[in-house]
TrEMBL record:
This is D-alanine--D-alanine ligase. Keywords: ATP-binding, Cell shape, Cell wall biogenesis/degradation, Cytoplasm, Ligase, Magnesium, Manganese, Metal-binding, Nucleotide-binding, Peptidoglycan synthesis. Pathway: Cell wall biogenesis; peptidoglycan biosynthesis. Mg(2+) 1 binds at D255, E271. Mg(2+) 2 binds at E271, N273. It catalyses: 2 D-alanine + ATP = D-alanyl-D-alanine + ADP + phosphate + H(+). The active site is at E18, S144, S282. Cell wall formation. It is found in: Cytoplasm. InterPro entries: ATP-grasp (IPR011761), ATP_grasp_subdomain_1 (IPR013815), D-Ala_lig_Van_CS (IPR000291), D_ala_D_ala (IPR005905), Dala_Dala_lig_C (IPR011095), Dala_Dala_lig_N (IPR011127), PreATP-grasp_dom_sf (IPR016185). Belongs to the D-alanine--D-alanine ligase family. The gene is ddl. One of its GO terms (cellular component) is cytoplasm. Residues 104-304 form the ATP-grasp domain.
Length: 321
């Protein structure tokens, strides 16, 4: 596949909680493509997005949306119906990967270690704990650590959780409750069919939440991570296997917790991000750069894969075998 020049519609923004991140990702992608001589049309997604995409008549859509509805299969389904070629994962993969419970159902039977837990009604939290403390509560289908709460024995949410305590129970009718895994935060990017590196994330305070991810200076990135080789290899193998099982396309990023007192048995996959950030602080571009892949080349590689796969059957299908 030759490198253009192409006409690329960069789809970004939208109305999810991750809108600001998406705008940064999209603008970075657009500038990178323009620097390589490609024609770019920027589209800040609104309710008329289908008409705007149709008018653009681009060769390919770079999907730089994060969160719902850009990452959960909704926009993918729309573009499938329109016959558009687009980057990253298709409809079925996106539906499964955005939903943490569906992801477990797809991956755990294939030997991918993930935390236990179950979905709870938020109202039930005001009566008692769904799991022994400490435990984690998170929305079922949000990314970037939006709405994550760690409930500890001495935490300030109350015991049971108070109705007036600020937390995800005020914004979501149901939440995923998981046991809290002590230890370290690791992440591995996959590009095409290759796992890149392992990064350890060390927040300066608290945990790796939305602010820590996207505020410069709040989190130290150790890349490659200073961890035993068996953990590095396990992260890369699990990330690549999860990418393949879910049928991910383009780039994905798998996030892990590692209890370093338990060796490889303490490594757990938390989630697979099918449209990872492309901002200046984002982890996929950082790992690629460490391997000598500059940002513009990374973007072109993702677009090339989308164009190469445009004629292949089952563009939106997930692989569960």
């Amino acid at each position: 596949m030759t490198r253009g020049p192409w006409h690329v519609a960069v789809l970004m923004g939208g109305w999810s909680a991750e809108r600001p991140v998406s705008l940064m990702s999209g603008e970075g992608v657009a500038k990178a493509l323009e620097s390589r001589g490609h024609r770019v049309t920027r589209i800040d997604m609104d309710r008329d997005v289908a008409a705007r995409l149709a008018e653009t008549k681009a060769d390919v859509v770079f999907n730089a949306l994060h969160g719902v509805p850009g990452e959960d299969g909704t926009v993918q389904g729309m573009m499938d119906l329109m016959g558009l070629t687009y980057t990253h994962s298709g409809l079925a993969t996106s539906v499964i990967a955005i939903d943490k419970q569906l992801t477990k159902q797809a991956l755990v039977p294939h030997g991918i270690p993930m935390p236990g837990g179950h979905i709870v009604q938020s109202e039930s939290l005001f009566e008692g704990d769904p799991l022994p403390r400490p435990y984690v509560l998170k929305p079922v289908n949000e990314g970037s650590s939006v709405g994550v709460a760690i409930v500890t024995a001495e935490g300030n949410y109350g015991n049971p959780i108070a109705r007036d305590s600020v937390g995800p129970w005020q914004d979501f009718p149901e939440l995923l409750a998981e046991p809290y895994i002590r230890g370290r935060e690791l992440t591995t990017a996959v590009l095409g069919d290759e796992a890149l590196l392992v990064t350890e994330l060390r927040p300066k305070s608290g945990f790796y939440d939305f602010d820590a991810k996207y505020t410069d200076g709040m989190t130290e990135h150790v890349c490659p991570a200073d961890i035993p080789d068996e953990i590095t290899q396990a992260c890369k193998a699990l990330a690549l296997r999860s990418h393949q099982l879910l049928g991910c396309k383009g780039a994905s990023r798998s996030d892990f917790r590692w209890d370093d007192e338990r060796g490889v048995e303490g490594l757990f996959l938390l989630e697979v991000n099918t449209q990872p950030g492309m901002t200046p602080l984002s982890l996929v571009p950082e790992q690629a750069a460490k391997l000598g892949i500059d940002y513009a080349t990374l973007v072109e590689t993702i677009v090339e894969e989308a164009l190469a796969g445009a004629r292949m059957p089952d563009r939106a299908g997930a692989k569960h075998g």
